[in-house]
């Protein structure tokens, strides 16, 4: 089950933050994404790549949040960062609320999630 939030949720509050359209480039995918005027309408991006992450790093300054995702290989004591997301503080707050809502729904369906440090003990 997907829990989604998008720019139009904040359009009334932060109209100056919303880009109408952006082009995202990676080494293998060029995708054009645009915000739809229709609430709830989402477009799938062909070639969207999923990456596993068990390491997360968050930084911020006065204007933006930086979210780094990667994989930590304990057997080699090696860290490989593979993705960085840069967003505004307002969108970081929306992301946080979206993740918390999704975690709540998950726990309602499947039971409590053990803390990561409980797994290490």
Mean pLDDT: 76
What is the distance, rounded to the nearest whole angstrom, between the alpha carbons of the first and last residues? 31 Å
| Tally of individual helices | 2
Strand order of the largest sheet: 3-4-5
| Tally of DSSP β-strands | 5
The major β-sheet equals: 3 strands, antiparallel
User: What is the CA-atom radius of gyration, in angstroms?
Assistant: 17 Å
Helical content class:
10-25%
Structural class: alpha+beta
Low-confidence stretches: 6-36
Q: How do the SSEs run, as a string of H and E?
A: EEEEEHH
Shape: globular
Q: Which percent band covers the strand fraction?
A: 25-35%
Structure description:
- The model is unreliable at 6-36 (pLDDT under 50).
- By secondary structure, the protein is α+β, with helices and mostly antiparallel strands.
- Strand 4 and strand 5 form a beta hairpin.
- The chain has helices at 89-110, 116-120; strands at residues 21-25, 30-34, 55-60, 65-73, 78-87.
């Amino acid at each position: 089950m997907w829990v989604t939030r998008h720019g139009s949720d904040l359009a009334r509050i932060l109209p100056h933050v919303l880009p109408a359209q952006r082009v995202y480039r990676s080494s293998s995918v060029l995708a054009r994404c645009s915000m739809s005027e229709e609430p709830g309408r989402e477009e799938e991006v062909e070639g969207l790549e999923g990456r596993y992450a068990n390491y997360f790093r968050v930084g911020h300054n006065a204007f933006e949040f930086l979210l780094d995702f990667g994989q930590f290989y304990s057997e080699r004591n090696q860290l490989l960062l593979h993705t960085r997301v840069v967003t505004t503080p307002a969108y970081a707050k929306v992301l946080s609320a979206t993740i918390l809502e999704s975690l709540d729904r998950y726990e309602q369906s499947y039971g409590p999630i053990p803390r990561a440090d409980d797994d290490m003990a």
